[in-house]
Amino acid sequence: MLDLNNNKVNQKNDYDKTPETIEKVTLVVTKMLSDVDIDEKTADYLVPSDVKTSRYYTLPKTHKDTVVNGHLKTRPVISGCGSPIERLSELVDFYINPEIKKLDSFFKDSKDVLKLINCINEKGPLPSSVAMFTIDVKAMYPSMPQHLGIEGVKRALDNKSFKKPSTGNLIECLKLCLNENHFEFNGGGGGWLLKFTGHR
Q1: Are the C-beta atoms of 20 and 84 separated by less than 8 Å?
Q2: Is residue 47 within 8 Å of residue 91, measured between CB atoms?
Q3: Predicted model pTM
Q4: What residues have CB less than 8 Å from 119, skipping those under 6 apart?
Q5: d(Cα 142, Cα 165) in Å, to the nearest integer?
Q6: Averaged over 87-105, what is the pLDDT?
Q7: Residue 34 has pLDDT above 50, yes or no
């Protein structure tokens, strides 16, 4: 279970910062509109009128032993449905995802890696000097430094297949989605937190 008191990945807030996030989203969207990166219909969509704070909950890890040392093993989930950054993250994903898939280092999932290994095997035996291995990174996404991820996205957009929106505006949207990932725990009764990944 995600340690909500872990200040390496969560920052406690004294109040719900959702209204402040809406203002920041509005500023970014207004700039994109003035830069003619998006049209008015898209701008209206990106700034929702009815928003709610992201919520934290957990799901049991059913593919593993579910109880360890008397504690239920769970996977943390932060649901951003209806949050101020939900639609902005849709925009970022829509434009960035196809460009990321063009990178040589891109793997979709474990099945994708297995397909790649199968293709390598079809070419014949590997030289004896080659050793194949796998690693499993615990808490991979919270461990990734944000600035490196942002730099990687910038590189992926160097040869993007579209002119608008601009790389600069997409990166600002990405930063906003990463830096404004506020959520409530226990309906706000447990407090409000900011979830951030990696080193800020």
Answers
A1: no
A2: no
A3: 0.78
A4: none
A5: 28
A6: 89
A7: yes
